[in-house]
Amino acid sequence: MYNPVNGAVINEVVSTRNLTMALLGYSALYISPWNIVVESRSFYNLMFWIYTLNLTLALLNAFPAYPLDGGQFLDSLLSKVIVNQSVRSKVMIALSIVFWSLIGLTLYYTLMTGLYRLI
Predict the structure, then answer these.
(1) Antiparallel, parallel or unpaired: β 36-38 and 29-31
(2) Which residue of 9, 18, 31, 115 pairs with 110 in a disulfide if CB–CB is 3.0 to 4.6 A?
(3) How would residue 15 be classed by pLDDT, with cut points 50, 70 and 90?
(4) Distance from the first to the final alpha carbon of the chain
């Protein structure tokens, strides 16, 4: 067995439990500076959900509708094309209504058809 951390070759028999876990795709988290090995599946699940929530919030914040940051960015882009403030405001309100309606329809469809169970 080759240890990539220090380059040492170790000759030892891997236990059946570890071999089965490796074949199933289960691997431990090895933090090399402190020689810490984390083999907890609940830790992996927690890290996965934290990652997923952070990514979802970042994407939602970039959504081009008011009052999110993406809406502010789209408004600044439209200010180069549409000079009149009242017209630009009406366009942004219409776009925001369309985008938020699409989000609402997606949530409704997901809840009514049971797609949320696939997550």
Answers:
(1) antiparallel
(2) 115
(3) very low
(4) 36
For residue 64, whether the previous peptide bond is cis, meaning omega lies within 30 degrees of 0, is no
| Residues 94 and 86: beta-carbon distance below 8 Å | no
Distance, in Å, from the CA atom of 76 to the CA atom of 82, rounded to the nearest integer, reads 10
Q: DSSP code of 9?
A: B
11: exposed, middle or buried (C-beta count within 10 Å: 0-12, 13-18, 19+)? Answer: exposed
Residue 54 tokens read as 């952070």
CA dihedral 18, 20, 24, 26 (to 10 degrees): -10
Phi, psi of 84 (to 5 degrees): -70, 120
Which position has the token pair 């927690």?
Answer: 46
Higher-pLDDT residue of 51, 19: 51
Place of tokens 């439209």: 78
